[in-house]
From TrEMBL:
It holds the Pfam family Flavoprotein. HAMAP family: ubiX_pad (MF_01984). GO terms for molecular function: carboxy-lyase activity; flavin prenyltransferase activity. The gene is ubiX. SUPFAM superfamilies: Homo-oligomeric flavin-containing Cys decarboxylases, HFCD (SSF52507). FMN binds at residues 15-17, 41, 102-105, 137. Keywords: Flavoprotein, FMN, Prenyltransferase, Transferase. This is Flavin prenyltransferase UbiX. It comes from Paenibacillus spiritus. Dimethylallyl phosphate binds at residues 167, 183. Its EC number is 2.5.1.129. The keyword Ligase does not apply. Residues 9-188 form the Flavoprotein domain.
Length: 202
């Protein structure tokens, strides 16, 4: 299980709680030397500000400060830029992860509502047969949420709800965040050591 370090992925961060998940995923992919095309919804920026305490006024400066030191490459695309490279199926990436994924974004993807770069890029993944991973973070779930997730699953989308496990003996919140990011990387066949695997003896 290994992905070339030159691989490129789209990472979406929406307005669902759990912005740290998308941040940690981005950090990890960059640390592995990959290229990340980052899209953050307007609500996603609000959650980043509220949950992480980041000053999001100068967004590109902030991203360079937070992610500029990794060996990988970060390319930021405003969510309104519907003409960005990742909006076209002719632009090659390995796949896309929306982490965390709000139920609004999940619904838009399930119903083909490509009204911004986030949902358009997800639609491109589906039409081109590329990997699309959504990490919904909502509770409780009602029937519409469940029906949309079932629809997406039947279309080949990977759904990894933000449900961290405890069998590996997490000691910190970072351990729980790393577990969820690790599960996403597992689904993409990317090697990592973010959590102790069951039966590994480590």
């Amino acid at each position: 299980m290994s992905t070339p370090s030159s691989a490129s992925y789209v990472v979406g961060i929406t307005g669902a709680s759990g912005a740290i998940y998308g941040v940690r995923l981005t950090e990890t992919l960059l640390r592995l030397g990959m290229t990340v095309h980052l899209v953050v919804s307007n609500a996603g920026w609000r959650v980043i500000k509220e949950e992480l305490g980041w000053n999001v006024t100068d967004r590109e400066g902030l991203l360079n400060d937070k992610f500029g030191a990794g060996p990988g490459s970060l390319l930021y695309h405003p969510v309104s830029d519907i003409g960005a490279s990742i909006a076209s199926g002719s632009f090659r990436v390995e796949g896309m992860i929306v982490m965390p994924c709000s139920m609004g974004t999940l619904s838009a993807v399930a119903n083909g509502t490509s009204d911004n770069l986030m949902t358009r890029a997800a639609d491109v993944m589906m039409k081109e047969g590329r990997r699309l991973v959504l990490v919904p973070r909502e509770t409780p779930l009602h029937a519409v949420h469940l029906e949309n997730m079932l629809k997406l699953s039947r279309l080949g989308v990977t759904l990894i709800p933000a449900m961290p496990a405890f069998y590996f003996g997490p000691q910190t919140l970072d351990d729980l965040v790393n577990f969820m990011v690790g599960k996403v990387l597992d689904s993409l066949r990317i090697d990592h050591t973010l959590f102790r695997r069951w039966g590994s003896g480590e």
